[in-house]
Amino acid sequence: MVAKANVAKLPVPPPRDSVASAEVSLYRNVLKIREDHSLENLGISFYDAESTIQWSYNADFYFHAASTMKLAVLLGVFRQVDRGEISLEAPVHVRNRFTSIVNQEPFMLDLGRDADPDVYGHLGKTLTVRELAYWMITKSSNLATNLLVDVIGISTIQQALDELEIDGIKVLRGVEDQAAFNAGLNNEVTANGLLKLLRLIADGKAYSQSACDEMLKIMLDQQYRGGIPAGLPKAARVAHKTGNISTVHHDAGIVYLDGRKPYVLVILTQFTPEQGRGTAVADVSRDIFNTLAGITYE
Amino acid sequence: MSDLSAPQVLKVVDAFDLDDELRSILRPGEMVRDDQGRRHRLPRYFYEIASHEVAMQTRLSQNFSLNEFILVDLKEAPRLQQYPRYVPCAVRTLAFYLQQFRAMIGLSVHIAVNGAYRSPAHKLSQHATPHMWGTAADFYRVGNNILKTKELIEKYNDAAEDLSADVTVLPYGPVPGKNADDHVHFDLGYITVVPREISEDRMEQPQESRPRFAFEERRRKDRRSPESEEVPTK
């Protein structure tokens, strides 16, 4: 009797290759990935420009942003460039000295942790805004990030997010501000927030087409490919930004495949420090790719 | 290729003769306060540097080219990042002392970006500092050593102070303007140089029938009254 009643409550299964079926399948697979990787939290949001399908899971939950906040810094930089406030070729003094937002005390980055000799090799000299933006995204340089945050200011970054009506991204500070971290003041993102930002860039609507083209060009050169690209065929091109700390692993990107319009995908994962980073992001990316590949459109 | 051993002659300009924009940035002769509230008169005579090539090729001393004293980033006023550029004539004195310092320690000295001349419009020019006179240099590297430890900074601070009583340094520490923890601040104080080709009575003669700026009018009044009027820095 019980089994019969349960069966009766299940929805009618959708056709196997339909969008509805894909959504059910995706949901099941995502739950399984979450369980398999013992994730504390998982947030996913994607939009496929080819099918116009938008799908999300826990997409308004706020995660520690880790290095995905650098996408907001990139947006703020190009806001200023587009307005003529700064030039991409303007020189910036490379100096490892920043001010905490909490106590205004100076702090320095641990350059041993920041594997970007391309930037810290220029200590005392200059790099251009363009070069800093490039290393901030492609090698996730914390030094480049904090230098750019100093150049444009946190308020400008937030202003850019507000102007473009991007909710779900909170940027309070640069990176490695330990005093702020201890005070619980962190940059946070939601999957939907990052999706909105990336869609604006993909659609050429973040300030100007040329600004978006420049941002995409930088993001396509991403050197850390263990997230979304790891779940895709090698031919896929991904303009993306990863984010990692001891308890989160994120990736947010625009996926370009031959013969179809791109899709935008954000995968945010959170786990215990003991659990460590696994392959959850790549697994979700693979599952979404396979799902999209299997859909037939009416 | 130019001959680097040949003496290079730099054009000296009276900043009052520069265009309005440059004069408003360089603020020749204006009084500014340092962080202790003491007043200092900004330099009036500058070397004009025609091009980057001239800056690179002009040696102020055996091992220091003029270019090293005008390295700035986007904190400097955009107009002052374009050639022709201007640097106070006292920069030669700084180069002379740095050369002596280099000889004393036997290692190359690398001046940081924004580490030598900074105009009054530079974003780091919150108060008067000798950087605005071209008489202070921040160096971040000596030989192959990046100056990031207390030991290294204090070692070269001591050497600089041993060189001459004219040299002042900032002690190691984190407070900007009072300490330095990632460079050595080498400072000769507020030196104003009047090049020999300048006749100093020129200011006393009317250059135009009408002053170009309010501060020039004030200065004319200053010369008739014993108490100078002070214009704060930005």
Q: Total strand count of chain B, please?
A: 12
Describe the biggest sheet of chain A? 5 strands, antiparallel
Fraction of residues in H or I helices of chain B: 10-25%
Distance between the termini of chain B: 42 Å
Outline of chain A: globular
In oligomeric terms, what are we looking at?
Answer: heterodimer
What is the strand arrangement across the widest sheet of chain A? 2-1-12-11-10
How far apart are the termini of chain A?
38 Å
User: Approximately how much beta-strand content do the residues of chain A carry?
Assistant: 15-25%
- Element order of chain B: H for helix, E for strand: EHEEEHEEEHEEEHEEH
Low-confidence stretches of chain B: 1-6, 226-234
Rg of chain A (CA only): 20 Å
* Average pLDDT level of chain B: 87
Which CATH class of the largest domain in chain A is shown? Alpha Beta
Order of helices and strands of chain A: HHEEEHEEEHEHHHEHEHHEEEH
Unreliable spans of chain A? 1-8
Strand content of chain B: 15-25%
- Helical proportion of chain A, percent range: 25-40%
| Contiguous helical run count of chain A | 11
Question: What's the mean pLDDT score of chain A?
Answer: 91
Structure description:
The complex is a heterodimer of chains A (298) and B (234). Chain A is built from eleven helices and twelve strands. By secondary structure, chain A is of the alpha+beta class. Chain A has two domains: 14-61 and 190-298, DD-peptidase/beta-lactamase superfamily (Beta-lactamase); 68-185, DD-peptidase/beta-lactamase superfamily (Beta-lactamase). In chain A, strands 2-1-12-11-10 form a five-stranded antiparallel β-sheet, sandwiched between helices. In chain A, strands 3-9-8 form a three-stranded antiparallel β-sheet. In chain A, strands 4-7 form a two-stranded antiparallel ribbon. In chain A, a hairpin with a 6-residue loop joins strand 11 and strand 12 (263-270). In chain A, helix 3 (69-82) crosses helix 6, helix 3 crosses helix 7 and helix 5 crosses helix 6 (142-152). The longest helix of chain A is centred in the first third of the chain and has 18 residues, at 19-36. Chain B is an alpha+beta fold. Chain B has one domain (11-224). Chain B is built from five helices and twelve strands. In chain B, the strands form four sheets. In chain B, strands 8, 9, 10, 11 and 12 form a five-stranded antiparallel β-sheet that branches. In chain B, strand 5 (59-61) and strand 6 form a beta hairpin. In chain B, helix 3 (91-105) crosses helix 4. Chain B is globular and about 50 Å long. The relative contact order of chain B is 0.16. The interface between A and B is medium-sized, with 19 and 20 residues.
